[in-house]
Amino acid sequence: MNQDQSEPAAGMAPPRLEALEALSGAIERGRHLALIAAEGAGLAPLYAAAALRDLAAGEAGGRAFVLTATADRARRCAARMHAAARDAGYEVVVVPGAAGGAVGRAPILVGPPAVLLEGVRKGDIPAAALCSLVLDDVRALEPARAAVEAVVQASGEGARRIATTHARDAAFDELIERWLPRARRWPKELFAEARAGESEAGRVAGTAVAVASRATREGRLARLAELLRDLTGVGAAASVSVETAPDAVADVQAALSLAGLHVARAEGAEAAETDGSAGEANGSAGEANDGGAALRVGAWGEVDPAAHAVAFELPPGPEPLARAAAAAERCYAIVDSLHERQFELTALRAGLRAAPLAEPADPALMDDVAAFRARVAGALEQQDLAAGALLLAPLIREHGSARVAAALAGLLRAAERPAPGAREAAPGDAPSGDARPGDARPGDTAAAPPDRSARRATRPTWTKVFVGVGKRDGAGPGDLVGAITGETSVAGGQIGRIDIRQNFTLVDIDSLAADAVVRGLDGSRIKGRQVVARLDRGAR
Asked: Greatest CA separation found in the chain?
């Protein structure tokens, strides 16, 4: 695991633990918590604080569970809980991966719900002793909803429950009503936002903050320097303010000076003191800036926003962003890739919207990119887009159309690249071995060029599957697609027409996958309702 992703880099202060500070009173009172937050808000330390309080207040042998969507997220979460747990005399164990004995004795267990549920059912983990249960990012846990529900039921009424999500929706609201009665909700700005299904435009209105993310500190500093060169270059003559964590100011100033940028003091009066090559770099940069640009670096709230305001790393809350947006002409942010979700939530709380910062293009690739763009434009004119839009609706709601389109373009271009060592046959190339042109046999499909009839032959035949949830339950096409792809290995292309009736739904499924869909959906929950799934009586 990248050290930069689990612990703050040397010399860089971690972001202030906003969630932990705001909810410390609720933790001490043992209240249920419902949070709209993501990595960077201080969730893992909050989980640790709640678990340690509950373990200390409960009976000996108590347990705390943290359910995460992936093992990778479990490792990151446990790493950030470890120090506090160790200081209190408790052990944190990640499952899967831990020895059976460790799982049986550790008071704090972190891992995917199916793995922890298996431990409960085998008797390795006594569910009756559970005093604290965390559902980390309910939206990401949705594919494992059946296991999550089973763990929640096994935990009983006495356990404190904490649920977080990076994007509020009807399913999250339903979970709070069912499993977290009278929970403390945080932050109030996001719980006051429109519910899913209402006008999306109202939720993303506001000044845009251009955001770039990088996985390493070095990458973020390099991208910051690149952005600042563009903003303060010859002819730009723009003043720029950079805000970051107090303990990181000196490091950011030094890194920018070494990159050849002229950094002024936070007060804007004097040039930063440097020595050696950094001093020479400052001198040359001052000439390049033509004397008109001022670049200041300071701690959050301690430097006045200039014509361009840049947030480096995740802000401690919405206030610095709101302040910068009110005073600056343009706002930018460079953040850790793991904190991108939380930055979007922080911007939303400030009445702003996060938009991707344009990345420099490689001129050598522009001809190829232009050709690909022309193909996409042709597809927009010629293809039936309704089925694709239906399949992608849940992703678009969660990530936005621009990101979904970018991801699909990347997948398509990757699929078009030849395999390593492969190449297209050049005119005049002879077939391999002893074969000669014209020797291809009828069964040699590789020798025949694909045609429209061959492509039509590979299209799926459909079988209707009955699913016992309909309009009265509030089910939409996205709910059905999400349930099918989450509970089975069926791909989106194997899902056809979705006919939602008042009390049930008929879904066309690739006949080769219909039985697997029935097995996966039968007994699962959609919109909070346990559903019956079977082949439609009119099917084969």
From this structure: 83
Which residues, 6+ apart, have CB-to-CB distance to 215 below 8 Å?
Answer: 2, 4, 5, 336, 337, 338
Check if the beta carbon of residue 325 is closer than 8 Å to that of residue 310: no
- What angle (nearest 5°) sits at the alpha carbon of residue 31, between those of residues 25 and 35? 85
Q: Which helix (H) or strand (E) holds 94?
A: strand 92-94
Average pLDDT, the chain: 78
pTM confidence score: 0.63
Please name the residues in contact with 59: beta carbons below 8 A apart, sequence gap of 6 or more.
Answer: 129
Distance of CA 487 to the CA centre of its chain: 20
The Cα–Cα gap between 232 and 287 comes to 11
Cβ contact 166:38 at 8 Å: yes
Per-residue pLDDT averaged across 249-266, rounded? 88
109 within 8 A of 125, measured Cβ to Cβ = yes
Q: What does the alpha-carbon distance between residue 165 and residue 174 come to, in Å, rounded to a whole number? A: 13
d(CA 311, CA 332): 6
Mean pLDDT of 332-350: 94
In DSSP notation, 249-305 reads HHHHHHHHHHTT--PBPTTSSSBPP--HHHHHHHHHHHHHTTT---EEEEETTSS--
Amino acid identity of residue 3, one-letter, is Q
Average pLDDT of the segment spanning 389-398: 75
The burial of 445, by beta-carbon neighbours within 10 Å (0-12 exposed, 13-18 middle, 19 or more buried), is given as: exposed
At residue 98, φ and ψ (nearest 5 deg) are -85, 155
Cα–Cα distance for residue pair 16/312, rounded to 1 Å: 14
Q: What are the distances in angstroms from CA 201 to CA 156, 330, 380, 400, 482? A: 40, 21, 24, 12, 24
Q: In terms of residues, how long is the chain? A: 540
Per the CB < 8 A criterion, the answer to whether 303 and 241 are in contact is yes
Counting Cβ atoms within 10 Å, is residue 293 exposed (0-12), middle (13-18) or buried (19+)?
buried
What average pLDDT does the segment 85-89 reach?
Answer: 93
Q: Using CA atoms, how far apart are residues 224 and 451, in angstroms rounded to an integer?
A: 50
To the nearest 10 degrees (0 to 180), the angle between helices 276-288 and 249-258 is: 70
Decide if 464 contacts 536 (C-beta within 8 A): yes
Q: SS3 for 154?
A: helix
Please, are residues 67 and 164 in contact by the beta-carbon 8 Å criterion? no
Find, among 221, 234, 399, the residue nearest to 310 by Cα: 221
Distance between CA 56 and CA 48 in Å, rounded? 12
Dihedral sign computed on CA atoms, order 424, 426, 428, 432: negative
